[in-house]
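Following up on my earlier thread - several people asked me to post the actual chain instead of describing it. Fair enough. Here it is, all 303 residues.
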Amino acid sequence: MNDQPFDLDPAVIDRFAAIVGDKYALRDQADIAPYITERRGLWHGRTSLVLRPASVEEVSRIMRLATETGTPIVPQSGNTGLVGAQVPDKSGHDIVLSLSRLNRIREIDVLSNTVTVEAGVILQTLQEAADAADRLFPLSLAAQGSCQIGGNLSSNAGGTGVLAYGNARELCLGVEVVLPTGEVFDDLRKLKKDNTGYDLKNLFVGAEGTLGVITAAVLKLFPKPKGREVAFAGLPSSPKDALSLFTLAMDRAGASLTAFELIARRPYDFTLKHGQGITRPLADDWPWYVLMQISSGRSEADG
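Reply from S.P.:
Thanks for posting it. Predicted structure:
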């Protein structure tokens, strides 16, 4: 990494810092380091400034100033992505905009089965809040203890529940977005049956922050399954066996089949080698593995 001074105008940096206050305008490279490196160390960037706003108004002012000064902004959530999209480039011209302080769950509506959350809410925190309300938020992935909703939506995250519940796009009913001009696009609607013209939220979900900064969203909740069964199986030859098993599982379980993940031998062995506290689930080794989950509205006590 090049330690030479970066090219951002100090006067411009001061103007950005004044929006969030010095405490939340990170300038020291030791403080900045976690924001400019991908978790595995494969992607590195450079910046003179990381901004950590606490409100939509502050994000709006930042974007307005960025447009005025021609300063590139890189929105960042939990920095858990593995393709480097959340890392600034090496020019030193970018400013990182961390959404981690926008972390309120604004509302859980059990009547409409929706939750309104800010972009910095950690996925696992949302899952636990939904569970406490006797509801399910089905998006689930390996980084759920640190990834944030804004990044999940901006990357249209999938996870293990796509088969039954869809990607993040299918779980989103409405968004609040700050546009590059600083204008706030408020489309936090809960309506599920909506045929009122253009579905503008889908321009922003999966756009990686290129069209605007997602600051909040209305997401779908579901009734919490009363019963779940998980199976892990080894496959003797090729992924084609998984298709046969998938067809059989769908024929038998139908919509109750809520997860079906194909796992190759290499990542399986890697996880066993490097994961902490992981027990080998099968005595024998196989070329491929399948993880399945069947969920039901009935509990074991129901019979």
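The chain has three domains: 10-98, 105-223, 227-296. That should answer part of your original question.
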